[in-house]
Amino acid sequence: MGLLSNMFGSFGSIFGVALTLISSLTQQQTNGKSLWGTLQAPTFPLFLSSNGLLGSLPWGLLTATGSNPYTQAPNTGVTRRYDFTVQRGVIAPDGYQKSVILINGQFPGPVIEANWGDTIVVNVHNQITGPEEGTSFHWHGILQKANPFMDGVPSVQQQVALSHGTSDSWYHSHYSAQYAGGLLGPMIIHGPSNADYDIDLGPVFLTDYYHGEYFDILKSTTAPLQSGGNPAPLSDNNLINGKGNFDCSTVAVGDTTKCTNNAGIAKFQFTTGKTHRLRLINAGAEALQRFSIDGHTMTVIANDFVPIKPYKTTVVTLGIGQRSDVLVTANIGSSTSSFWMRSNISTICSLAKQPNALAAIYYDRADTTKTPTSTAWNVPDPGTCANDDLSLTEPMYTIAPSPPTTTKTMEINFFINSTGNFLWTLDGTSFRANYNNPLLQLANLGKLDFPEIWNVKNFGDNPTVRVIINNNSPAAHPMHLHGHNMQVLHEGPGQWDGTIIRPTNPQRRDVQQVRVGGHIVFQYDTDNPGVWPFHCHIAWHVSSGLYANMMEHPLDIKNLLTLPLLLAQTCTQWTLYTANKVVNQIDSGL
Ligand SMILES: *[C@@H]1O[C@H](CO)[C@@H](O)[C@H](O)[C@H]1NC(C)=O
Ligand SMILES: *[C@@H]1O[C@H](CO)[C@@H](O)[C@H](O)[C@H]1NC(C)=O
Ligand SMILES: [Cu+2]
């Protein structure tokens, strides 16, 4: 009897383990044609060879420390072309079957890879039907110097990219909250390295995940409160590289046939003794993520597109839209070691039913059919909803902020309008887009008189703009500026005390988290004439108006910029399309 129960016990546990090890669904069923998060995922070279120039660096003598990334860019003369077909498809990334948007049949989407100074051309074929929907790609973090038309935000500019900058990023739809439905993928721009490593394992996508369709969630976040509107929905799961398990016993009774347990988690291969580069990307809709790897410290070498002086940590905090490149050396235990990779949604700062994502890391001789048994770092959530300390992240290329020529204070707040809709405001206005009147084109025609709800901040010819954001709302917000890296002078609780963190060389990045009841202070030099979106990157918040347009050098927009023909055509096509059809625009449009 004892023996039997013992055997039964161990059989039970073997069986239990087996259930979590062997994915119950195929990769095709969970992620379509995507290989991200499988042991077959590609690794990446230090740079792409081009025009037979194998062996010589595409960026010549430019370096991460010595070359100003905003004024010096190589011109490689190389164009990298990508063809994206965007379609709906039914997959089950975490075992729960749902309709998503696939790029070339993949979720997450395929990589865009180039060298610093290359030109990237992406041909997007929109085959989204049932229902039809517009789309627009935004090349997150690409500064689009002298090229604001290609930044990809509808009603501001439209479509397709060119590259300046290095390190890692992502592309995503900037059309309503469409990227929460799957329209996203990684972007790797190879540049001069600021730290040595052996193997580039590529993107690690961290995404809060919703079982509802994004359009339904969006409808509910923007609906009047009295008719069930919910501006703060809970995510259902948290995924790494589009994969994760889900406990199907928690789904509604009518939905159980759509749900399969143990869909399978993401796996990564480490080579014993080698140093690996991981490109962490918070590509979610709402959640603040805290990322760690059991037993290993990480060396952070870049934030967003900005290479920084390497520093060691056990946790990296990433708000929506933020990226960090980290190096991890496989030197713990033996060549048969395996460890958990973890990304936890901060439940103090975000709304999640299942906040903890897991993926498995296997050293080269580890048994990849077994789950790791490693123990998590003891790193309690500080609950501030802020990024890791500004003093930690010092850019490789030093830039001291100039004295600002203008300072703008903007408040984040919310209100409920007379029809009961919950709306976010930035500087007193809740933004709403008009897809048919691209602002940049109007400015290009010299028309600078915009409706209040377009929330345009015209900084004229000011060379240096300082912005103080005070967050008087009950949520933290990842604030994202297009067209520039923000020099982040300070962040913290309450009001700014006037001090600057490392005034000789403050942190630069393109998304910065602002705490509840706190502030961020940043500035930028207006070296990029255009109209640049500045907004919260939480999908539901930007949809409900937390957005402004920062205009710089309007005269240059009129006199120096030429509307590209391709863009004029895209706009004409959109006008023709909407002439015959009422576009179902239920949100701010972005
Ligand atoms: C994530 O959550 C697990 C489980 O609660 C915990 O043990 C771990 O310390 C957390 N890690 C981080 C980075 O918050
Ligand atoms: C309230 O906001 C919603 C969403 O932007 C909008 O559709 C509605 O027209 C607004 N109500 C009024 C009275 O302006
Ligand atoms: Cu927000």
UniProtKB/TrEMBL annotation:
Protein name: laccase
GO biological process: lignin catabolic process
Family assignment from sequence similarity: Belongs to the multicopper oxidase family.
Main function: Lignin degradation and detoxification of lignin-derived products.
Residue stretches making up the Plastocyanin-like domain: 86-192, 203-365, 446-554
Principal cellular location given in the protein's record: secreted
Domain of life, source organism: Eukaryota
Protein species of origin: Coleophoma crateriformis
Compartment(s): Secreted
CDD domains documented for this protein: CuRO_2_MaLCC_like, CuRO_3_MaLCC_like
InterPro entries given in the database record: Cu-oxidase-like_N, Cu-oxidase_2nd, Cu-oxidase_C, Cu-oxidase_fam, Cu_oxidase_CS, Cu_oxidase_Cu_BS, Cupredoxin
Class of the enzyme per the UniProt entry, highest EC level: oxidoreductase
GO CC terms in record: extracellular region
Recorded GO MF terms: copper ion binding; hydroquinone:oxygen oxidoreductase activity
Keywords carried by this UniProt record: Copper, Glycoprotein, Lignin degradation, Metal-binding, Oxidoreductase, Repeat, Secreted
Cofactor: Cu cation
